Amino acid sequence: MKIFFSLFLPFFLSFAFLGTIQRAEAQNKALEPVIIDKMPQSLEEFIQLRDRIATTPQGGVAIFVIAMHLYTQDPKLGEACLTIAMDASRLKAGNAYKGFAPNDSDFRLIKSQLQQNPYLPRAYFKGTSPENGYALPKGKLEINCQTNPYSGNANEGKLKVFTTCTGADSARPMQLQRNDKGLWKATEWSSLLVGARRPVVKTSDDL
């Protein structure tokens, strides 16, 4: 009998562990996709988009991702947009937007990661991939998010949201908080700055 248990115990434990993972995955909840018609091209367009979509946690995620992308295109515009997308607790006095700017340590990390990996924000849009260089699709743009049993309760004004990344095997967590205007803003986003798979570089040998 002891031999029987010693032989089959690892299998029992493996099945139990797998069952736990499957139950956790089954409890993940997909949130309504965030779909925008086009990428904003100015601060005014960004604020209009923020007012429309950041009324939900996943909209707050999308606004932060869009701000990161805009930073790779226009650092001055991007810094202002990041300031708008962040919770007030992550800001300092500065000149980025209305007398505020991101905290030094936060902005230093964002700047460093996006300079090294300018494609990273695009990895959070549906339809991009390492194979297509994370090129944004034509037409409408979509960002997908989900929560899990440990995300918290949106009714309490705080939530951890997991964002699909086309350059990684798992969704990336981000924490948000609803402000007094009912807009969801980022309070923690370090996982979104972790590198994704590098874009595939196609070469042509005409020699």
What's the gyration radius in Å?
20 Å
Largest sheet: 5 strands, antiparallel
Domain count: the total is 1
- The H/E string reads HEEHHHEEHEEEEE
- Residues in β-strands, percent: 15-25%
Task: Give the averaged pLDDT, no decimals.
Answer: 90
Class by alpha and beta content: alpha+beta
Low-confidence stretches: 7-25
**Number of distinct beta strands:** 9
| End-to-end CA span | 71 Å
Helix share bin: 25-40%
Shape type: globular
User: Number of DSSP helices?
Assistant: 5
Quaternary status: single chain
Across the major sheet, the strand order is 1-6-7-8-9
Account of the protein in words:
The chain has 207 residues and is an alpha+beta fold. It has one domain. Helix content is 37%, strand content 19%. The protein is built from 5 helices and 9 strands. The strands form 3 sheets. The protein has a 5-stranded antiparallel beta sheet with strand order 1-6-7-8-9, with helices on one face. Strands 2-5 form a two-stranded antiparallel ribbon. The chain has a two-stranded antiparallel sheet with strand order 3-4. Strand 7 and strand 8 form a beta hairpin. Helix 2 runs parallel beside helix 4 and helix 3 packs antiparallel against helix 4. The longest helix has 25 residues. It is globular.
